[in-house]
Design goal:
With about 650 residues, this protein is α+β, with helices and mostly antiparallel strands. It has four domains: about 1-175 and about 600-640, Triger factor/SurA peptide-binding fold (Orthogonal Bundle), CATH 1.10.4030; about 190-230 and about 480-575, Roll (Chitinase A, domain 3), CATH 3.10.50; about 230-250 and about 365-470; about 270-355, Chitinase A, domain 3 (Roll), CATH 3.10.50.40. The longest helix is centred in the C-terminal third of the chain and has 35 residues, at about 580-615. The chain is extended and about 95 Å long. The relative contact order is 0.16.
């Protein structure tokens, strides 16, 4: 079971799904996040106790997953393909498990307090204004909107992340796999085999007879699905690219100076300080902390004496300190100084200042390369925008793509034939094609052309479909040469395996290994101590042959392919238990990583157990509707493998 779970966790699908997007910036306005999600949602796709996932939220999760999968695979995934392969129901199942786990933690009382979320604010300076050092609420909300998140949803995600992180840290701190577990694994992996073997050299066997055209035609008929070529399209593409244009432009010096004057403050670094803040319940406790710190007691010890945890700021601007009065006091101290009791807006506190990083003002020469690049980029974006406008005006006035492109200063380029994945006829990627361009190109009818499309950041394209070659089997003449090579290589492989099987039978009947090797012009080699661990690292044998060698009894002869394509005949001469000293060293060396792996496996099992406890419900039909799946495609998907719909619970 653990092995099966580990295989899923390591799969590309799970890696994408389990990478929950927690943006690396601070949270504004921490409030009662849980109350937001306890309100009933009419279009809930998933319900897990008090938690619900709406149709819009599920669509956002699915789109994020699909986008990440496309980036990882380098291939476009259409919604129809995703549904046909039941990726939507896999996402549905995984999100349901995650929501059930978070609900289980909530029911168990594992919830981060508001102070913990506030502490997360203090430790995330990325959304502090670089000029004033203060948190920028508008920028925070805009960034959330760009990622299709609301403050409530984001804060809920962060709350879940903190709760799960604390649970994991608490368990993992004292978790160690029993040494007996690792000892069993070490004994298994270091168990050795003494082998005698020889290889069947294909050069020593008669070459296979070249196939006839009839044989090749029959082979093509049997393997039509594998040999069938996808749809190819020939395109004409017109691009206007600010990224390509920018390096060819000269940066206007006046524009560089103007940009520097505008951004001078933001390019400079404000004064930062490293300090330790000890919060206190009252003035008396604060005074006691002051006395301890001045007596040389470490801040964490002084904080522990009054039952609190110190707050550490490392190279923080003034606005990064949550309490403004504490910030004022801290930025008035000299390095090494200890403040008196500070009565701030969040209660009393004492500060010990560790170090000061002075503010730095950036000179024009220091930042000139970046400013010039920005000026060129801005000029290129404006020029490209003007070109696009000229193209649109001319094209909408009746000019052809070529004439409109000429009027705008662009040059259409013929591309193809290529597949929907952007591969040429040899299977190599065609450069300069985006996923959006390919998607649009393969959605057009033959002869049709797209409008000028905006890909963002000054990148535009228009595409015309010049020719469509439907999916089809190639003719025998087109692939006869490579198909013949494959046919003969397969025939030789089968001949080597048949010869090896015959020799194994002869050995089992009493023929010596040396005589068997000599009969095909081979020579016997010896490997006195081959272990599973060494074989896993070497990978010179096929998994099939490795498995046979370590399940065979002493004296047995086995055969199988090597990683290089030859066929080996081997006899197990001896079986050697793992050396005690080697096994002991392996146990000591591998206990920590094995503990980590076992902890991961148990964590995934805990998620499954939480799901069994909470019993989330799902609505696959509503989920597909949220994704925009047509009823016809939904019906096809519903007729897929048993259980693919993942119907609740």
């Amino acid at each position: 079971m653990i092995a099966a779970i580990r295989a899923f966790v390591k799969s590309w699908f799970a890696k994408v799904l389990l990478s929950v997007l927690i943006l690396s910036f601070v949270i504004f306005g921490v409030g009662s996040v849980r109350d937001v999600f306890r309100a009933k949602i009419r279009d809930a796709v998933i319900t897990a106790g008090s938690r619900q996932v709406s149709s819009d939220q599920f669509k956002r999760m699915f789109d994020n997953y699909k986008r990440a999968a496309e980036q990882q695979s380098g291939q476009q995934i259409t919604l129809q393909d995703a549904v046909a392969k039941h990726l939507d129901t896999q996402v549905l199942q995984e999100v349901a498990t995650q929501e059930a786990f978070s609900e289980f933690l909530h029911k168990s009382g594992i919830e981060p307090a508001a102070t913990l979320i506030a502490d997360a604010i203090r430790k995330q300076p990325a959304f502090f204004d670089p000029v004033s050092g203060r948190f920028d609420k508008t920028a925070y909300q805009q960034k959330l909107a760009e990622n299709q998140l609301t403050p409530a949803i984001f804060e809920s995600l962060l709350s879940d992340e903190i709760a799960q992180g604390h649970l994991q840290a608490g368990f993992q701190a004292g978790f160690r796999a029993p040494l007996s577990y690792e000892a069993v694994i070490a004994a298994y992996e270091l168990e050795g085999r003494g082998l005698s073997y020889f290889l069947i050299d294909p050069r020593k066997l008669p070459p296979p007879t070249p196939p006839t055209d009839a044989q090749l035609q029959a082979f093509m008929a049997q393997n039509g699905a594998a040999l069938k070529r996808p749809e190819f399209r020939n395109l004409t593409v017109l691009r206007f690219s600010a990224k390509t244009l920018a390096p060819t432009l000269q940066a206007d010096l006046a524009a560089v100076q103007k940009l520097y004057d505008f951004r001078k403050d933001s390019l400079s670094t404000p004064e930062k300080r490293s300090l330790i803040e000890v919060p206190a319940k009252d003035a008396a406790s604060a005074q006691a902390v002051v006395a301890k710190l001045k007596a040389g007691v470490a801040p964490d010890v002084a904080a522990k004496s009054i039952g609190v945890q110190p707050i550490v700021y490392t190279d923080a601007p003034k606005a990064a300190i949550a309490d403004p009065k504490v910030a004022d006091a801290a930025f008035a101290l000299a390095a090494g100084q200890i403040s008196g009791p500070i009565q701030g807006g969040l209660g009393y506190a004492v500060v010990k200042l560790a170090s000061i990083t002075p503010a730095k003002t950036a000179t024009l020469e220091q930042v000139r390369p970046d400013l010039e690049a920005q000026v060129r980029s801005d000029a290129a974006a404006q020029k490209v925008y003007d070109q696009v406008q000229k193209y649109d005006d001319s094209h909408s006035g009746g000019a052809s793509m070529a004439d409109a492109a000429k009027a705008a200063g662009g040059t259409p380029v013929a591309i193809g034939p290529l597949t929907a994945q952007g591969l040429d006829m040899t299977g190599h990627p065609v450069p300069g094609l985006s996923a959006k361009l390919l998607k649009d190109a393969f959605a057009l009818a033959p002869g049709a052309e797209s409008d000028m499309e905006d890909e963002g950041q000054g990148e535009y394209f228009a595409v015309r479909v010049d020719k469509v070659t439907p999916p089809a089997l190639p003719t025998l003449a087109e692939i006869k040469e490579p198909l013949t090579r494959y046919f003969m290589a397969k025939a030789m492989s089968q001949a080597m395996q048949a010869k090896a099987d015959a020799l194994v039978q002869a050995i089992q009947k009493g023929q010596s290994l040396d005589a068997a090797a000599a009969s095909i012009g081979g020579q016997v080699g010896h490997a006195p101590n081959v272990t599973r661990a060494a074989m896993a690292q070497n990978r010179s044998l096929s998994p099939e042959l490795a498995s046979k060698l370590f399940t065979a009894k002493q004296g047995d002869a086995v055969t199988g392919p090597t990683a290089q394509g030859a066929v080996m005949v081997a006899r197990v001469d001896s079986i050697q238990p793992a050396p005690v000293a080697d096994a002991a060293r392996a146990v000591v060396a591998q206990n920590r990583p094995f503990s980590g792996q076992l902890f991961q496996d148990l964590g995934e099992m805990a998620r499954i157990a939480a799901r069994e406890s909470v019993k989330p419900t799902m609505d696959p039909a509503r989920a597909r509707t949220a994704l925009g799946v047509s009823p016809e495609d939904a019906a096809k998907a519903a007729n897929g493998p048993s259980g693919a719909d993942g119907k609740a619970p």
